[in-house]
């Protein structure tokens, strides 16, 4: 039985993962790329604005994708802002249609309730991670099936999501996502991988991608991109050279060239010694207080046998990353 999705209150952060049916290779991610991968990223970026979410970073792999996103606290939108979202999500014709309906309601007495019902129909589809991923996966599947004269499901399952705490947990998962292409042996430096948030920021100079990485690092929108670029690259190379079950994913000599001017101990350097399943299946990831607070709030939808204390990811003494679910392999060994 699938478990209910754990969602935060107010502003929240999520790591989302979804796989292609039968594990088939849908995206050609090696050079020169593919129409499918390019369209997916384009749609992802358009719908994040249409749904009022923010993609902080992502990695598009051959048969699955990772998206790290922020869902801002729900707020009241002006009609102009709402119409902008409608146009991005449904096209200019729908925008014109809704604008005309709102104008008619404003001119005629007694139609204020009808106007609000119309607004609510669209407003209720904003600031929601489930609706954003549903729209992204559904619209891509429709486009892909039409293009390939294909029928049936394209995605293997509903997407997985982990609720993340802002700060150390958020930046650690961002690095994990952008290092996925290196773990798959597709490149030696994440800036060279065409379909990840870091490369989009570096190679394409994308404003959305740069803002996302700033957010992942906990930096303000007005902070210097040069500073964010340096700090995020340090994080990637520190994390990528840390030992894990599969070994380091970044060459040590290459990392030394990048990090040779760095001073002091690096608390995040060994985070990925943890089994990476916690980043996709852990349910809630953050400080112990954050995990316990979110557990208490979502207690009714969490499995009855689930402990309320959470589990510490034991990496190094200074790390304070906790997870809701203590994962075990089918054979009973801890994941």
Radius of gyration: 21 Å
Distance between the termini: 21 Å
Query: According to CATH, what is the class of the largest domain?
Result: Alpha Beta
Strand composition percent: 5-15%
Structural class: alpha+beta
CATH architectural label of the largest domain: 2-Layer Sandwich
In what order do the strands lie side by side in the largest sheet? 2-3-1-4-5-7-6
Helix content: 40-55%
Tell me about the biggest sheet? 7 strands, mixed
Shape: globular
Low-pLDDT runs: 261-278, 328-335
Please report the total strand number as a whole number: 7
On the 0 to 100 scale, the average pLDDT is 83
**Number of helix segments?**
13
Let me know the CATH homologous superfamily of the largest domain: Transposase IS200-like
Find the CATH topology of the largest domain: Alpha-Beta Plaits
Notes on the structure:
This protein has 13 helices and 7 strands. It is globular, with a radius of gyration of 21 Å. It has a 7-stranded mixed β-sheet with strand order 2-3-1-4-5-7-6, with helices on both faces. The chain has 2 domains: 12-73 and 133-323, Transposase IS200-like (Alpha-Beta Plaits); 79-123. The chain has helices at residues 35-50, 79-90, 92-107, 112-123, 129-148, 168-178, 180-183, 197-203, 207-217, 225-240, 252-259, 277-281, 288-297, and strands at 12-19, 54-60, 64-71, 160-164, 284-286, 311-312, 322-323. The protein is an alpha+beta fold and 335 residues long. The model is unreliable at 261-278 and 328-335 (pLDDT under 50). Helix 3 (92-107) runs antiparallel to helix 4 (112-123) and helix 8 (197-203) crosses helix 9.
